[in-house]
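hey so u asked for the seq, here:
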Amino acid sequence: MMGIYFFSRILCSTYIHSVYPEKMTTNSTSKMKKELGLFDVWALAAGATLSGGFFLLPGIAAASAGHSVPLAYLIAALFLLPGLLAKAELATAMPRSGGVYFFLDRSMGPLWGTMTGFGTWISLVLKTAFALVGVGAYIGIFFPDLPIEPVAAGLALVFGVLNMFGAKKTGTAQALVVIGLMLLIAWFTGFGLFKVELGSLSDMLATESGSLFSTAGLLIVSYMGLTKVASVAGEVKNPDRNLPLGMLLAFLTAIVCYVVGTEVMIAAVGVEVLGANGGDLTPVATVADALFGNAGKIVMTIASVLAGFALINAGIMSASRYPMAMSRDNLLPEPLGRVSPKTSSPIISVIFTVAVMLLFLTVFNPVKLAKLASAFQLLMFAMSTMAVIVMREARLASYDPGFKSPFYPWLQIIGIVASFWLIFQMGYLSIGFTLGLLWFGALWYKYYASDRVQRSGAIFNIFERLGRSSTDGLDRELRGILKEKGLRTDDPFDEIVARSFVIDIAYSTSFEDIVEGAAALLAGRIPMTAHNISRKFLEGTRLGATPVTKGVALPHMSIEGLSNAELVIVRAKEGITLQAPDLELSPEKPDSTVEAIFFLISPKENPGQHLRILAQIARLVDGDTFNEEWQSAADELQLKEVLLMQENFLFITLRCDSKAAVLIGKSLKEIDLPPGNLIPVVRRGHKNIIPQGETVLEEGDRLTILGEPESLKDIRSQYFAG
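ran it, structure tokens below
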């Protein structure tokens, strides 16, 4: 029970955060908590995926693919894999609300952002409309006189109103539905395996290839939920690992459930029953009746209805956020981006979304709804894969994904070609509607949005290399994302700070003198002369490459042949004036006077880490208490403490009258520190020593120890008196 409670709490939290991104702050002082682990990512992605594809589509698929339905689900998954990996990469690089629209807008530019934004929105609307029809069919089991279409339309209106006024309160219910859904699917499939005789591989291969691939294209919509978890990337612990791995595990879970589950369905009632009259719209209820009797049918029907409710509710919420995001980027009229202060819901966007949904329910039958949703989803996967190619070839250092899609660029090229090929296999309606929507998006951008948008995508950075355009705005945005994402677990930020040089100046001086002093210190650790270091820092400042904000300057550069990043920290109590006309100054300090300077030099081979370290310093500087703590620091150690996470470091001074006296005369390799702890710097007199294993400790040495909080507690108790 405690596990279920924890699971529901996590899912509820995730659900609300993903639905209401506008309420999540991203400043340095109010950062979203990273609470979601690998299990949570898997659970969210798997639950969102299985709620639709398992309960609604198998009957329709059986009508066209016969015994090959399990194989069609497997083929659909293989076609989807490149796009899934692409979205995982883009999500770890750009964790933003708006999903695939944001990725494509920032990579391909606002024209493609407009076209694919419309496409993604329409695919979600179509998928939700299909779910409405399915739920209407399952409700019809209990109320056979109720026509499906009016029931579906009524549900659309109900959940539309719920999203306008009370959606935030449905998070717990949604979480419980997902938990129950996965348990019931496991029960349905697991017990079903013991009651039926599964078909042979030859039966699966009996269907004509054209029908098989067309059905596989139809089934793409079954996997759409896998990528929804990308919207909560900012709340995932170790997202570089847990986000792609969780999505992949959910992907494998969906494949097993779909392949094994549909094979059980076929074996239980036969393709003639499952595919009758264009496809059974309530396949799970039909099979449950055959396997478990009327009681099982009732249980699975209720489960199907609840799963459909969850899918509809989440579908309307997700779909309505796309017009809102596009409106805020000036691609759609401003009212669509408004959020009600009372309900925290984009009411106009919800109304607009539900209206289009009702139109589709009137015009298209269930098969066409599923096909069109899948066609648009295939297009989005193809464009997401293209976005990965564009972002990598743009060679923006600020593009820093924690996960990279493998086998670049061949897997990406195959994914693009395969997606478009599968769209063509689905027939003229899918082709025509997809092309028509793209054409509409292009016309809309040309005649409405082009004059309202001033940004460009990463693709123009490729043109920049040919002397045609620039992406300064995108680079700044990506750097802002880096600032919000923070450091990776393997970034040695604390170590760099711990062994950094400190210059503390209480008198008035010039920036040039400070640069010379910092260069002289750095020259002892890097393969450059002090003169060249000083010259490069001054050139960068004059060119406007030195960020300045809130009285802090960040001169920085990357050089080849460097093994570790090096840092010089400067405090100037009287302030230093920078003479650089192109500096971008913050509103809080409109002049160029700074009290803190951080000189950073990093290996050129690791530009991502360089930017993450800069972003971490900028994030700390933006904190409300930084200036006060910086000015009040009594010495070098306290200056470093302002930058370090206090629970991750410890200072020990070796004195004869303390417990630490046992370390005097020992070399570092003789000291038995807990695993994961290190001594990056030893302060001896006025010098910082970068210790080696043979370094012998002396009385008066001050050790900086970095490690995990629990192990540091043990070290503190071992070497501190009292």
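The chain has three domains: 2-15+35-363+388-449, 486-643, 646-719. Strands lie at 501-505, 548-549, 552-553, 556-559, 566-577, 593-603, 649-653, 678-684, 687-689, 702-706.
lmk if thats what u needed
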